[in-house]
Specification:
6 helices; alpha/beta; about 180 residues; seven-stranded mixed beta sheet
Length: about 180
């Protein structure tokens, strides 16, 4: 997949910028802004190129044959959203099951316009005691990369401003759908 990803980036003119420091083997990857289905394709390719074993949660109803083969290969982890329990708790508990875990979350929760970010990613990182890494796709520059790393302080508003101030510098595929 790494070779295919490099070919895709070469053909489309994209570049990978930055890397996650090696000392971080567990983190929440905030992937923003998320405005297009192409975001998954380019983000997944970028993380293959960077050597990041990225995982993402997805509703278990989508894990049916043959789609489940693709989803698992791409890093999908099925989540049962109908069982009792808080999604933040379920996602934070995943960090106990893996020696290495980069869990990608799109804070908007949709590709459409959203008034504000969902807070779950922050509280997953806080509860699991892992940093938040900013992953981005800048369609204007054709850059896929890693931005700042934030260690949640417990002050959500302050930490959110740090994250969003970085993402305001990134041009999504559809800027009118951006939230920040």
């Amino acid at each position: 997949m790494k070779l295919f990803s490099k070919l895709l980036f070469w053909l489309s003119g994209w570049k990978v910028i930055g890397a996650v420091p090696k000392e971080f083997n567990k983190f929440v990857m905030v992937a923003a802004p998320h405005t297009s289905n192409w975001d998954f394709v380019y983000a997944r390719a970028a993380f293959y190129i960077m050597g990041i074993r990225l995982k993402f949660t997805i509703k278990k109803e989508l894990f049916f044959f043959p789609l489940n083969i693709f989803l698992k290969a791409a890093g999908g982890i099925p989540i049962d959203r109908k069982t009792k329990g808080n999604m933040v708790d379920k996602m934070a508990a995943l960090y106990k099951n893996y020696e290495e875990l980069a869990l990608m979350v799109t804070p908007e929760g949709t590709r459409s316009y959203a008034k504000e970010w969902k807070k779950g990613f922050y509280f997953v990182a806080l509860q699991a005691n892992v940093p938040i890494v900013c992953g981005y796709l800048d369609y204007e520059k054709k850059h896929a990369g890693i931005g700042p790393i934030i260690h949640p302080s417990g002050n959500y508003e302050e930490d959110l401003e740090k994250l969003q101030s970085f993402f305001r510098t990134i041009t999504p595929k559809y800027p009118e759908k951006g939230v920040i």
